[in-house]
Amino acid sequence: MAAIAATATAVTLAACGGGDDKPDAAAKPTGTVTVKVWAWYPEFKAVVDQFNATHTDVKIEWTNAGTGQDQYTKLQTALKAGKGAPDVVMLELQEIPTFALTKHLVDLGKYGANDVKGDYAGWAWSQVSSGDQVYAIPVDAGPMAMMYREDIFKKYDLTVPTTWDEYKVQAEKLKAASGGKSFMTDFGANDGGFMTGLFWQAGAKPYTYDIANPGSIGVNVNSAEAKKVFEYWEGMVGAGLADTTAFHTTDFYNGLGSEKYATYLAAGWGPGYIQANAGGAAGKWKVAPLPQWTAGANAQGDWGGSSFAVTDQARYPDIAAKVAMEIFGAKNSEAWKIGIDKAFLFPTVTPVLESDAFTGKTYDFFGGQKVNEVFVPAYNAIGDLDWSPFNSYNFNQLTTNLGQAIEKKTSWTAALDTAQENIKTYATQQGFKVQ
């Protein structure tokens, strides 16, 4: 799923003394066990119905408790109160350290989660684990690629770029040929996940953090790699080659449906969003790999992704772990058929990801192109990245300070410097030792 922009939520080391994650000592259950699940996946009801129809020992009771931060706020309240939390909860990958820090996530490694480790790419599994401790089961991801309007490229005789230098050259050609009517793309400054995906591809490591050592964190938001990304996009925006309309707004989707934007730097879940919101451009879009900083390289980034975790309020954590592992597991082809065909999830489960049904799937919206032949190799080439345990604050800093730069109150790189200092101060105030 797309990363949801969120307001800051305070998380302190003092909160680390929450509930434990030891197996429940209660007697074995008799009859069917009901497992409460919170999730906002599209078309999830059908997935729940499919699970319940194929299991007699366990039944899922599903609640949509809100999207992103709305759900997280309710979850934090329930966890702190010691009651009211679900057994299994959907968490975006970047939010796992926040909830693991307060020790409210069950170690799924105790219930066989490491047995399915081989079903996932190494980078995806590292997002949910530390050593043999497993805090969640990955479900979907957002490997990035470049969607482009084939009709606009043909109209203005543009070449599909393979490097960021070529991308800028084509953007300049587009501006001149269209009389400034079309932008090469939109750089949505309201989405920290999008920016992080571009940093990721450039080799930036904004944070160094291990859940196993929660008191220490490295902060390097304004690294040379991150500044390279921002310098590039400051130039693109300043020259009128890229727009800065907020992502996920009506104006943004109207731009994708018209000739305003020639490309969309999207994630693996992007095909579903663009098809649902820019249907008037059906058949005009194609997908190509994300441009590279170095010709011939294969550096990739991820934007978004989510998982299933088990909370310490689960009465039967072993059964809840079974639900987390199986509901979108490698063997659950029926659930994935719903997830792929109707919800447009990009699977992290390798057997599904590399199946002919997924890689060979054609999309009418993209003129019959097998777009996953682009997204799957991108997924497999993504490197490791650490998230911090206060990611909502970090994203808020990125978007707020970049907003100041777009208003020309500061430079883009200075915005990163400000974010760096504010995040370091915040981390120290929350009790972390900042490296």
TrEMBL record:
A Pfam family it matches: SBP_bac_1
Domain of life: Bacteria
PANTHER family xref list: ARABINOSE-BINDING PROTEIN-RELATED (PTHR43649), BLR3389 PROTEIN (PTHR43649:SF14)
Name under which the protein is recorded: Extracellular solute-binding protein
Organism field: Actinoplanes flavus
